[in-house]
UniProtKB/TrEMBL annotation:
Species of provenance: Isoptericola peretonis
Keywords of the record: Membrane, Transmembrane, Transmembrane helix
Transmembrane segments: 41-62, 104-124, 145-168, 180-203, 210-228, 258-279, 317-338, 363-385, 409-434, 454-473, 480-503, 523-544
Domain of life (superkingdom): Bacteria
Listed name of the protein: ABC-2 type transport system permease protein
Amino acid sequence: MSATTAAPPLRGRDEPLRGGSTLTGTWSLVRFILRRDRVRLVAWSLGIPLLYLGALPEYVLMADDAAGLQARAALVQSPAMIAMTGPGYGTDDYTVGAAVANELVLWVVLALAVMSILQVVRHTRAEEESSRAELVRAAVVGRHAAVVATAIVVLAVNLVIALLSAGVLVANDLEAVDSLAMTLGIAVSAMTFGAVALVAAQVTEHSRGATGLSMAVLGAAFTLRTIGDMQEVHGSWVSWLSPIAWAQQMRSYVDLRWWPAAIGVVAIVLLLLAASALASRRDFGGGLIPDRRGPADARAGLRSPAAVVWGQQRMSLLWTALGLGVMWLATGTVIAQIPAMTETLQENPVYSALLGEGDLEKAFLGIIVLYAALGAAAFGLVATLRAKAEEEAGRAEYALATPVSRTRWLGATLVVSSIGTAVVMVTGILALAAGAAASGVHEPSSGAIAEAGLLYLPALLVLVGLAAALYAWVPRATALVWLVFGYTLVVEMFADLFGLPEWARQVSPFWWVPDSLTGDVDWAHVGGLCAVAVVLFLLAFAGFRRRDIATR
């Protein structure tokens, strides 16, 4: 006599786990995300409040300067500044609080929106793409646990940043209620884009697609906000189509109203429900929109490491160069208005320390060129460290298993990232020069502006080489290059204000870049930066040839 044991019925994809639900394991995943990202989350949580802390002194010092505040209000009402900051409230009787809200909200929203998007994609679509989510799901973890845990963490981080930022504002004698309203409004707007990323993660099959789609929505929101604010004073109905405008329309420090934030809360709830519904209707590991099938054989032009790297980075290069180019073009149109503010700027201790003495137009242009270089540097670091992501995902191992040498593989990444960095820099400088020329600025000339920007290229290659060398020798220490990047920003912007000694300034690669707008070019410094860049690139190749490659 034989007996058979019936197999247990398979659990449907939306059926709760035995003794649990589709949210089982959510809090365990929340703790895991917090532990895994503790460094980057702490950096974001402290970075934004420190940004306020660094920016507020220039506003506070103008509190008793009514003429200076009104001159600043006139600048905020110009078309270029409306595009770069927002609709501008309280300009008739400008106050420090109104200046902070008008000039900082947009940029903090953009920064936190990018953080929210990257954090969401990192713990949803990227985890499925790498197959780590499949291992997690093999435990007692519900289908929706990862999505909900990610949303909880991103929301919590935005709220922590909002509370800390409000504390910094209140500590600088700004109204408590308005400060809290402004920072919470920013958090709601940023979280809206995080919820958009949750939906995008269900639609696409790859993390790059989810990030690209989310960033495209962010770019569209910025464009709609700009168009709406340019159409009418204080914005038109088009502005309200953008989550960015919801934070600005709260009118903190001028005529506070809370209900625009409620629009964001409703949008977040709807997007989270949509993400949950979409997650229930797609195959695990796949997206609602499957990848288009490609040809069986690659074209001859795609059969090299450089072609593969170019295919991975070309869209990010396109959108970075385009986005930053538009911003620098708009910035260039503001330069013609600097002479009208000369007296006010010279009387402000912060501006005096930043701009120095002499021609304010050239000094202001020098700072904008520096900003363009920092933007190009950030792109270059991200592009270079793409090699680390390829290794961690196991794709580098597959590539090196073919007749491709380590030098050729790493060299492809460095060539593409270096050229991309130069393209972002040159595009930004040309856009800045075009904006200055269009606004009637003829001195310095477009050629002089272009020269000032090109002189930053060796310093940019130093940062790229440093990132490559750290990756090649100590992959776990690549985060140090971002500390160098941040230190460079502090030195270039606040060295005189903080009274940093000469040796502390010389650590920054940008310190050695000659300012051709206000002085002579020291070609010895340029040659020295080129030599350092070459040494770092050689160190990168030497280190990568000697260490083990991570395997999966």
